[in-house]
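Researcher: Go.
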Amino acid sequence: MSGLFLIIMGLARFGRLIEYIPISVTLGFTSGIGITIATMQVKDFFWPDARRA
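Model: Structure:
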């Protein structure tokens, strides 16, 4: 969902508005996305589902 939000913002040319958002907010937002994706993958990495293989 967050990635989709970033894509839509990029396509709508809202990139110039990033100048008004503090870098700490931007870093926290993208770090949160990365952590969410990584934690969702841990289950599949350690306990693969044999039925999908």
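Model: The chain has a mean pLDDT of 84.
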